[in-house]
Amino acid sequence: MTPQDADEFFRRLAAQRPDPKTELSYVNPYTLLVAVVLSAQATDVGVNRATEPLFAVADTPQKMVALGEAKLIDYIKTIGLYRTKAKNVIELSRQLLANHGGQVPRSREALEALPGVGRKTANVVLNTAFGENTIAVDTHVFRVANRTGLAPGATPLLVEQGLERIVPEKWKHNAHHWLILHGRYVCVARKPNCETCVVNDLCAYPAKTTLAAPAPPAAARKAAAVAKTKRPKKKARQKKSVRAR
Predict the structure, then answer these.
(1) In the chain, % of residues over pLDDT 90
(2) Which residues contact 161 (CB under 8 A, 6 or more apart)?
(3) What does each C-alpha distance from 204 to 5, 77, 110, 171 come to in angstroms?
(4) I need a surface site. Which of 9, 38, 103, 120 has the fewest CB within 10 A?
(5) CB–CB of 68/76 below 8 Å?
């Protein structure tokens, strides 16, 4: 995708969603950090359902450590990998108290040193809590960047680096929010809704469909394939009848 097309790509996404935001619920940088850690291999809806009552009683590292791992598990047991996540949340809370005065650090290195925090989580926190122009690459961003040709890459890091190069500076702050929401609601994994996509004509996805030429249903494709196999025989009979005349 050219820089000009990338600029138009984000201009359209911005027009569609002028104020994109994370769909995770949080009340401060600490609860955002915890919510993102819990969201690994889980849906935002499921995380929010668990964290609403959790954050009502533990919205600081001090309160979380006081709550303890066993009670934390009771709040998050509906989330996948909850036992590992509970250990990480308690330990990262302890480390915030011991090493950062109970505050979430505004440093990628310091964030990634915390248990359960990887590059994606650090990017989300830096962007959403501290206003930095970082680009977090989750499964939706990875899919959309590769499928559309915006920033192809075999790994999340390569996609992130590609996005850093191609996304115009004026769109960078909200770039990953637009891509997440586009991937979650339009460019979905199994059957993208190409007919309603505002960047359809800019997209390089070879199997994309348009409103003017929708993908044929399975039955129609099967019928077309059967008809195609029969055509040569029909032509052969026509040629034979001509010779007979």
Answers:
(1) 80
(2) 153
(3) 11, 41, 38, 21
(4) 103
(5) no
Non-local (6+) Cβ contacts of 14 within 8 A are 171, 174, 178
Find the catalytic residue in 120, 191, 201, 240. 120
pLDDT of residue 10: 97
Report the C-alpha gap between 223 and 137 in whole angstroms.
Answer: 41
CA distance 10 to 169: 11
DSSP state of 68: -
What distance in Å separates the CA atoms of residue 25 and residue 202, rounded to the nearest whole number? Answer: 33
Kindly tell me the sign of the dihedral angle through the C-alpha atoms of 62, 64, 70, 71. Answer: positive
Q: What band does 144 get if pLDDT is binned at 50, 70 and 90?
A: very high
Q: Is 212 helix (H, G, I), strand (E, B) or coil?
A: coil
Task: In whole angstroms, give the CA distance from residue 205 to residue 188.
Answer: 13
Cα–Cα distances in angstroms (integers) from residue 197 to residues 61, 146, 209, 231, in the given order: 42, 16, 10, 37
The one catalytic residue in 19, 21, 138, 201 is 138
Q: 3-class SS at 193? A: coil
The alpha carbon of residue 113 and the mean position of all alpha carbons in its chain are separated, in whole angstroms, by 23
pTM of the complete model: 0.79
How far apart CA 79 and CA 36 sit, in angstroms, is: 12
138 is a catalytic site residue: yes
Q: Half-sphere exposure of 189 toward its Cβ, with a 13 Å CA cutoff?
A: 5
Is 3.40.630.30 the CATH classification of the domain at 1-211?
Answer: no
| 64: nearest Cα among 86, 37, 38, 42 | 86
